[in-house]
Specification:
Oligomer: single chain
Number of helices: 21
CATH class of one domain: Alpha Beta
Radius of gyration: 25 Å
Shape: globular
Strand content: 15-25%
Largest sheet: 6 strands, antiparallel
Structural class: alpha/beta
CATH architecture of one domain: Alpha-Beta Complex
Strand order of the largest sheet: 15-14-19-18-16-17
CATH topology of one domain: Flavocytochrome C3, Chain A, domain 1
Length: about 675
């Protein structure tokens, strides 16, 4: 195929596949494996990744990273319907999706066990669980801080064993689609082979130096993760970039984009400080006016030293910021800790530290017997044989692997504090999918993992890992049952798609320093602008006015980035594409945030509402006194968002209830499995 950006003819090879998986994290690898297991020729499954091992699954975690599943140990009764109802009760989640996630959880859990993940098991073969955030039945399990990394490693071994194809060093730049309206479907994926080009510093003097490749396929699994680089205050690993523009520009509908998950994380090395990190009650402090002075942070926010210690403990399994946990009159008001950190970092410009060398009462000089702690904290620490003198001793007794994680990255928790902030960690929204994780309006496109917006307002910790595995399973079975036999778009159709969708993007790149008509924009400067805007307007404190202004400024940045970009090497090309992607994504996300706040002022599960920009966090906490969470009777609906040309359209749909499944066994036997 020949394309003509700038009028310069470049030859673009077209290779064929049955399934293209964009992304090499746990969700994408699992989808590829299940495609092969379902009968798709492994050699016709192609994984496209810009950096093998560079994504969130391989590089993120927490104190003991959670995998959420149906409970299969203990005396508490559980069932797929019970789990689905718990997921659905979080709000703004479709009930049939919740039931699919619950029904598939055990199958996927044991799939991971089969390929080598050694989840804790006792001598009788039981897999005990523990309670995580937003959890009611101790459904959580873990293999330690690196659970998702170990999943990626096991899944990668299995993919290699099956002979699944890998295109490493390939940056996907466009999902090509054919047809219009209800007939729109994927035709393939266009990517740039950076590895073949010689790396990021290889010079680009002509568009002929840009090795563009098109993989033609009737099914594309979009497993690129969440909007990882649109926030500066981020717990996403630095190597994880945003790729939402692939689905956005393909026309795929999105949902629940306003609902991010935020929590306290370390800055120097990006890591969630949940679970054990909080349960050992470390000190939070800021630097005082005197050299070397430490001022305990929570003393002025919470009514007593005992309360400050207890709320810190509760942050362990209440880690995500939640406005319903900001009322001092309620027993659990642990999210005030997040607001205290936010106030110091964002509104006062101070550095905040979490210190495992000192108890908070050591800094204030108050006498504090651990026996004064409420039973929930005291008993947990006692049963864990962690009733020791300092937080680092307690952490070593409770979870020594948590200490080792930081040691692995050159940080000794025994000798230095952690600089912290409130960071974006996960987007509960994403692309809209069916019960088979297929896009609702682009046939053959399957968003899985964090790219799929299955989650609503709240989700239990670890539910994202379960959803990614179940989504990959269901997508693969659907692909094997339909698209594996579907014919790919004709060469003529793929050429039409490439000329209309890919060629204009390539034409914006001016290689070799040849300036075009537009004024060049520095990608790194623009990317920093995106991060500052999202931190200021789209974090845990939002205002209607601030979101509207940020949305309009984001639109202006996208317009500026549509001008020609001067690129001298492949690093310049990748940097421009990454920045453009983040700019497009943050515009759509801010538009959804503004719409959601305007239409549902009472629904804000991950942020508090400021009366005006700059309202002090302390004043917000005072206003929340006695609110005891969201008002009853809030609508359970979902905000869907689509980009239509140069505009963004929103629509509201009611959340579908959990189905009352009452299938007759003999009837299923006669017609066969439907999943």
């Amino acid at each position: 195929m020949t394309l003509h950006p700038h009028g310069e003819a470049i030859d673009v090879p077209v290779v064929d596949a049955t399934v293209v998986v964009v992304g090499s994290g746990a969700a994408g690898l699992n989808a590829a494996i299940h495609c092969a297991e379902a009968g798709v020729d492994p050699g016709s499954v192609a994984i496209i990744t810009d950096e093998w091992g560079g994504g969130t699954s391989y590089n993120a975690g927490s104190d003991k990273q959670t995998y959420y599943k149906l409970s299969i140990a203990g005396e508490g009764a559980d069932s797929p319907l019970a789990m689905a109802r718990d997921l659905f009760s979080g709000g703004s989640m479709h009930g049939d999706i919740a039931l699919a996630e619950a029904a598939g959880s055990i199958e996927e859990f044991f799939h991971l066990v089969r390929i080598g993940i050694e989840f804790p098991r006792n001598e009788l073969g039981l897999y005990p669980g523990y309670r995580t955030d937003n959890d009611t039945r101790q459904r959580a399990t873990s293999v330690g801080p690196y659970t998702s990394r170990m999943m990626v490693e096991a899944l990668a071994r299995e993919a290699a064993r099956l002979g699944i194809g890998l295109l490493d060093g390939h940056v996907a730049v466009r999902i090509l689609v054919a047809g219009e309206g209800t007939e729109k479907r994927v035709a393939g994926v266009a990517c740039i082979d950076v590895a073949r080009a010689g790396g990021a510093r290889a010079p680009v003097t002509s568009m002929r130096d840009v090795p563009v490749v098109i993989v033609r396929a009737p099914a594309v699994v979009l497993a690129t993760g969440g909007p990882a680089n649109i926030y500066q205050a981020s717990a996403y690993p630095p190597g994880q970039r945003c790729a939402h523009s692939l689905g956005i520009e393909a026309g795929a509908a999105m949902q629940n984009l306003a609902f991010m998950q935020f929590g306290i994380a370390s800055k120097k090395f990006r890591w969630n400080l949940s679970g054990s990190f909080q349960q050992v009650i470390p000190a939070y402090w800021v630097e005082g006016p005197a050299r070397g002075e430490r001022v305990e942070l929570l003393h002025g926010w919470l009514p007593s030293a005992v309360d400050a210690a207890f709320q810190t403990f509760l942050k362990g399994y209440n880690w995500p910021f939640d406005p319903s946990k900001c009322d001092r009159a309620a027993q659990n008001h642990s999210s005030i800790v997040d607001l205290a950190v936010h106030d110091a970092v964002v509104q006062q410009g101070k550095n905040v530290y979490m210190d495992f060398r000192s108890n908070p009462w050591d800094i204030t000089g108050e006498p504090f017997p651990m026996a004064d702690l409420p039973a929930e904290a005291k008993d947990y620490i006692g049963v864990s044989t962690a009733a020791l003198a300092t937080p680092i001793e307690r952490l070593d007794a409770l979870n020594p692997l948590a200490i080792q994680v930081f040691a692995d990255h050159g940080i000794d928790l025994r000798s230095e504090p952690l600089e912290i902030h409130v960071a974006a960690q996960h987007c509960n929204g994403g692309f809209t999918g069916t019960i088979n994780w297929e896009s609702t309006n682009v046939r053959g496109l399957y968003p899985v993992g964090e790219a799929n917006g299955t989650h609503g307002r709240h989700r239990p910790g670890g539910a994202a890992l379960n959803a990614g595995q179940v989504g990959g399973l269901r997508a693969a079975r659907h692909i094997a049952g339909s698209h594996s036999r579907a014919s790919s778009a004709s060469i003529a159709a793929i050429e039409i798609a490439a000329k209309g969708q890919l060629e204009p993007l390539l034409a914006r790149l001016r290689p070799g320093g040849r300036a075009g008509a537009g004024e060049a924009i520095d990608p790194q400067t623009a990317l920093a602008e995106v991060g500052r805007r999202m931190d200021a307007a789209g974090g845990i404190v939002r205002s209607a006015e601030g979101l509207r202004r940020a949305r309009d400024a984001a639109r202006d940045l996208v317009t500026r980035l549509e001008r020609e970009a001067v690129v001298a090497d492949f690093g310049g090309i990748v940097g421009y594409l990454e920045t453009r992607d983040a700019a497009i994504t943050h515009h759509v996300v801010l538009a959804a945030m503004a719409e959601q706040l305007a239409a549902e002022p009472g629904v804000h599960p991950c942020y508090v509402v400021a009366c005006q920009d700059g309202e002090a966090a302390r004043d917000i906490v005072a206003r929340l006194q006695g609110t005891r969470g969201p008002p009853p009777g809030l609508p359970n609906r979902i905000l869907e968002t689509r980009v239509l040309g140069h505009g963004i359209a929103h629509s509201w749909v009611e959340a579908r209830p959990v189905p009352d499944e009452a299938d007759w066994f003999e009837g299923l036997m006669k017609r066969g499995s439907r999943a």
